[in-house]
Amino acid sequence: MTTSLKYSIFDITYPDSDGLPMAESDAARDYLIYGVEALDRYFQDRPDVYVSGNLFLYYEQGNPKAVVSPDVFVVLGVEKKKRPSYKVWEEQNKIPDFVLEVTSKSTASEDRGIKKGLYAYLGIKEYFQYDPTAEYLKPSLQGFRLLEGNYLSIPGRAEQDCLVVPSETLGLEVWLEADGAMRFYAPSTGEKLLSPKEMAQARSAAEQARSAAEQARYEAEQRANRMAEKLRELGIDPDSL
Fold first, then answer.
1. Which of 1, 78, 213, 221 sits at 20 to 30 Å (Cα–Cα) from 164?
2. Which residues pair with 164 in a beta bridge?
3. For residue 126, which of 72, 176, 61 has the smallest C-alpha distance?
4. Neighbouring C-beta atoms of residue 88, cutoff 10 Å
5. Secondary structure letter of residue 10 according to DSSP
6. Domain span at residue 59?
7. Does residue 217 sit in the same domain as residue 114?
8. What's the total number of domains in the chain?
């Protein structure tokens, strides 16, 4: 006797991880974290913007092999919430609008070939690549915008020894700074988007500067008081000077 087994798309498992540790260089990891944290904070007041990175993104229901894991991606028009993985068909078929790959020696050919073609096929509006070592990508920051199914290079501009590539999708600028670092800037304010670590460092520096200013003011007041006391001892009214 044979038993007929019937499977449906609901029986298919979509793993949230491949069980392998993330193998990235220090620089690649740092920029991946920066990209996710800085963009997530920038869109913190937008409940309809989801920012993530190094997360499995499944783009074809019923096919768990149809998966990619962008280093950093932003989806406009979906709920901001924690997800174990991103399944396009569970998100009103919303694909990412922006993807950034932090390329390295081990991923350069994939980032410039297979992934670039896949992202174009999926319809991702903007695709950025950044090589923190400046060894595999020339220039080491490049942006592409989708036009009629193909990625066209986004023209950058030179500013203060930096390369500036605008992202229309995010409303931000991506800067390749003079020291080779990649940073996001808000063109409306000219402010650099900081990571939580950088923000903590900035707050600490500001607090130290405030404390130093208060100490200097206190010391100046003490010197003025001592001088006034000496004048009084000499029979001089300090207020008359």
1. 78
2. 157, 175
3. 72
4. 18
5. G
6. 17-155
7. no
8. 2
pLDDT for residue 69 is more than 90: yes
Q: How far apart are CA 63 and CA 58, in angstroms?
A: 8
214 and 151 part of one domain: no
Comparing C-alpha atoms, which of 175, 106, 174, 165 is closest to residue 135? 106
Q: How far apart are CA 224 and CA 216, in angstroms?
A: 12
Q: What is the pLDDT of residues 88-115, one digit of tens each?
A: 999 999 999 999 999 876 666 666 778 9
Residue 189, in any domain of the structure: no
CA–CA separation, 42 and 172 (whole Å): 10
> Based on C-alpha coordinates, what's the Rg of the chain?
27
CA distance 184 to 172: 7
pLDDT surpassing 60 at residue 20: no
Amino acid at 19: G
Is residue 220 a part of any domain in this protein?
A: yes
CATH number for the domain spanning 44: value is 3.90.1570.10
